């Protein structure tokens, strides 16, 4: 089976961390979007470092940074969005739309 290069957006969340782990177990080249806004959230930083130790590549970009997001998407074949939609639903929807726009601009990931 051909392995994919997978970017997980929201990789430190409840579902996202499980997706990252599954990608690593399946030996996909796994990229995790690391937002500069993560700040000093020690738990999330430790989780990201553990992903890195397992072979994931951390890509620093914000969903609000269109250029950075496009650059991140250009490195992969598959984008998985695991961003939470629980709080501030309208804001989260806008972030999802920004991700879709970056995917379209990058042009290398099929949108389904």
TrEMBL record:
<dbReference type="InterPro" id="IPR050608">
    <property type="entry name" value="NmrA-type/Isoflavone_red_sf"/>
</dbReference>
<dbReference type="Pfam" id="PF05368">
    <property type="entry name" value="NmrA"/>
</dbReference>
<dbReference type="InterPro" id="IPR008030">
    <property type="entry name" value="NmrA-like"/>
</dbReference>
<dbReference type="InterPro" id="IPR036291">
    <property type="entry name" value="NAD(P)-bd_dom_sf"/>
</dbReference>
<feature type="domain" description="NmrA-like">
    <location>
        <begin position="2"/>
        <end position="110"/>
    </location>
</feature>
<protein>
    <recommendedName>
        <fullName>NmrA-like domain-containing protein</fullName>
    </recommendedName>
</protein>
